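The aim of this short unit is practical: by the end, you should be able to scan a pair of folded records and say something sensible about each. We start with the first protein, listed as its amino acid sequence and then its structure tokens.
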Amino acid sequence: MPHRGGIRHMIRTFKDPEAVSRAAADLFVELADEAVAARGRFRVALSGGRTPLRTYQLLAEAPRRERTPWPRIEVFWGDERCVPLDDDRSNAGTATRTLLTRVPVMSGSVHPMRCSADPNAGAADYETLLRGLFETVPVLDLIFLGLGRDGHTASLFPYTSVLSEEARWAAVVHPEGQGPSRVTLTPPVINAARVVAFVVIGREKAAILRSVLQDPPEPRRLPAQLIRPHGGRLIWLTDEAAAAELGKR
């Protein structure tokens, strides 16, 4: 397994988006089984955008639906746009429609970020939720992340103050030119996870993926470089198109 600055990370490249989505779904099932066997439950943070939709569909279908210990799963989100749940831009709303209403997950174990009415209150409420569930910085079993063409991940956007956050577990972000305000998990929470899995698909992501993985550290410009799990694993699931520029300078 390659190391980057002492961090265990793995790059797994697949032929096409369908194969990447299947690998992400299989990783979800595998880690859920391991976590339930070891600790009695599986705590996962889902990502948003279009990339994970096929993974969610696969998890809601046989055979993965039947193989997954849904009643023992607790669901969080890495970030959320501050829009109503029925808005197509809502990460939680999308995951609910494509996955969570189709599997026997316990309703009390699903924790969306609710911030459409007041982003600051929404961030504070999510912080309170997390602190009520975890005595110290949350250690999630799996966090799924995407990668934006500007190098952002979750809602950690370039040159925003949240990149240097060390105390809060959830924070508001007002990304310039990126639509509504957002609430995001902060770097200390993401980096405490047992496994962080980036899912990166498409030729349009090739240049930024190369920059994040191969450029010198410059996390204010490339926030995805901040993701360095402490003692956990960092996994990149990519298709051949997204990985096309790796190894180039």
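Turning to the second protein, read its sequence before its tokens, just as you did above.
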Amino acid sequence: MGSTDQATIETGVVRLTDTQDSSLSRTAMIQPDGSFVVQWVPAGTYTLAVSNASNVPRQAFGRRGQQTEAGTSYAPFQESLTVTDTDVSGIGVTLTPATTQ
């Protein structure tokens, strides 16, 4: 994949974890269009983490969650995110393809 190629992430998990209280955590699934919505997040500073990201459609995974179609898996990602008392939208995340060994 070249540096200008941008594949849509179709599966994965987004997790917000409060940096002051790790027991406060919210998750959301990445939708087929690459979007995600995390609801009911109190104001604060969070770690936004993305895991199990792939450009393979959700239906291409077997019963045990194993990928059954060829595609690109992406390395886990995390960054800090501040939430205030209003909705946060337009968060863009750039993921790096995972290296296989």
